[in-house]
Amino acid sequence: MNNKYIIALDIGSSSSRALAIDAQGKIIARSSRPVETLRPMEGQAEIDADVLWQGQRNMLEEIAAQIGLENIASLAITSQRSTVVFWDKLTGKPLSAALSWQDGRAEIPAAASQLDKEFIHRLTGLYVTPYYSAAKIHWALQHIQPVAQAAQAGRLCVGPLASYILWQLTGGKVFACDPTLAQRMLLFDIEKLDWSEELLDIFNVRREWLPQLKATCDKYGTWEKDGHSIPITVCVGDQQAALCALRVFNGEACINYGTGAFFMRNTGGKCHFLPGLLTSVAASVSNDNRCEYLLEGPLNACGTVFAWLGALGIEVKQEEIDVLCEQAVAPISFLPALGGLGAPYWDFQISPIMAGFSLHTTKADIVLGTVHALSYLMADIVFYAERCGISCQEIRVAGGLSQSRALLQSQADILQMSLIPCLESEGSALGAALLAAPSVGIDASGWNTLEILNKIQPKIDADCAEERYQRWHQFLNWCKSGK
Predict the structure, then answer these.
(1) CA-CA distances (angstroms) from residue 353 to 341, 469, 470, 478?
(2) Does residue 446 lie in a domain region?
(3) How far is CA 37 from CA 99, 103, 137, 255, 449, in A?
(4) Which one, 97, 155, 399, 404, has least CB within 10 Å?
């Protein structure tokens, strides 16, 4: 495997990256492109799928020019999980903008809204919301004419971003995805690991419109480029890929602070269902219908909260967060419910609320209030899991915002728990490459994907933490009473 590299294509919510990774797990070349999320109206969020594809292709070509096509052993694709793309089976062209996971325009079909929510939860691991693909597909069939016409003509393809990019890379020869991505469509039976005929009927979706289901590590066709056939061997959701890089095994947990934030706890081969939390599947390495499961608690907004503050005129660069937090004197109270509240509340009617302003309130007070709010919302998830018998001794933390010492200190303080920061910022891409390594004869057991920094320990005692947490819940209850 000398001079042979795995290319990991990581399609995130704010940017995409292509990384060339060598047999020792080192990143030796990279390229990136921004991912522009368009917001034409309140509650809407969409992506130009064709522009996105052109960006992925250009990144791959840039990497290939640096290292040589002949030196690429494999491609691995990881992507944001709940964004859905509609395209024409004959032309490969998008039929509309891709509806982002952040898009909330879809109405829940009456047949679905009448179902017992815990029945849906036990079937899919998810809850019926506009943010997962099923409701978006149902809505698009009614409101986007090209999508409806393609469906009637038998030419409709619907799938996650990774499936669309995979289709384009293989020239339409492969239309597939793995369970980590399929599950986010709210049409997937999480225990049978197959599309649910009952949910397909309820949401008026045909199986032939959907991707073929494969294991995470499988044969996903080839990228044909200038006489070279490069195998595509991994297709996986970004959070599950990051878990592989973080080496989160059965009984362990992590928090990933990104555009949104996710608490994930590996429960091994046992599928747990806790009301208020999601159940997800981990990356799979074979087609024998065996997998590990994850309990998952998402925050709808994390990094996007600071972008939202910027849109209000309160510009905050990531490298400024810790400095501003140190300057704060009287932090405001803030409920950053952009797109509503995620786990364990699932309240999509509530909006962002700020309180506690005075004539002396500063930008620093707003930033520290934001940091506290994010850590308290995440604590709500962790504490809820603990009350349900799913405990954690310590938690690994990663993602772009995990670089904020102020955020991690606030999180450790309120949880009264050690946090283990992980340095690598390319966890999803490295996790995808780690999954691809065995298929091309690379032993990845020695890869240092988990570079651990000094643990973050609580700096306040349990009584002080409890007092702060009680004040947070008084504010949260006040917000919910007035919605």
Answers:
(1) 12, 18, 18, 10
(2) no
(3) 10, 10, 19, 24, 29
(4) 155
Q: Exposed/middle/buried for 7, CB within 10 Å: 0-12, 13-18, 19+?
A: buried
> Do the Cβ atoms of 111 and 202 come closer than 8 Å?
yes
pLDDT (tens digit, 9 = 90+) per residue, 388-441? 999 888 899 988 899 899 999 999 999 999 998 876 668 889 999 999 999 999
Q: Name the residue type at position 188.
A: F
How far apart, in whole angstroms, are the C-alpha atoms of residue 204 and residue 134? 9
Residue with tokens 């002080």: 464
β-pairing verdict for 46-47 and 98-99: antiparallel
Is residue 443, in this structure, part of any structural domain at all? no
Is the separation of the CB atoms in 372 and 410 below 8 Å? yes
Q: Residue 213, class by beta-carbon neighbours within 10 Å (0-12 exposed, 13-18 middle, 19+ buried)?
A: middle
What is the reported pLDDT for 1?
47
Contacts of 56 by beta carbon, 8 Å cutoff, 6+ apart: 9, 11, 16, 18, 33, 165, 168
Residue 457 Cα distances to 357, 416, 423, 443, 466, angstroms: 30, 8, 17, 35, 16
Name the one residue in this structure whose structure tokens are 């032939």.
208
pLDDT, tens digit, for every residue of 331-380? Answer: 999 999 998 899 999 888 899 999 999 999 999 999 999 999 999 999 99
Q: Nearest 5°: CA angle at 318, between 42 and 383?
A: 75
Question: HEC string of 304-326?
Answer: HHHHHHHHCCCCCCHHHHHHHHH
Full domain range(s) for residue 11: 5-236
Residues 6+ away with beta carbon under 8 Å from 423: 451, 452, 453
Same domain, 296 and 200: no
Instruction: List, in order, residues 6 or more apart from 453 with CB less than 8 Å away.
Output: 420, 421, 422, 423
Nearest Cα neighbor of 298 from 251, 367, 239, 252 is 239
- How many CB atoms neighbour CB 26 within 10 A? 12
Residue 273, both tokens: 């269902």
Residue whose token pair is 């209030």:
369
For 12-62, strand residue ranges (E) read 15-21, 27-34, 46-47
Task: Give dist(CA 102, CA 83) in Å, integer.
Answer: 8
Let me know if residue 412 belongs to a domain.
yes
> Per the structure block, which two tokens stand in for 275?
């009301």
Q: Is the domain of 193 the same as that of 216?
A: yes
Straight-line distance from the first to the last Cα atom of the chain, in angstroms, rounded to the nearest whole number: 60
Distance, in Å, from the CA atom of 336 to the CA atom of 279, rounded to the nearest integer, reads 24
Mean pLDDT of 82-87: 96
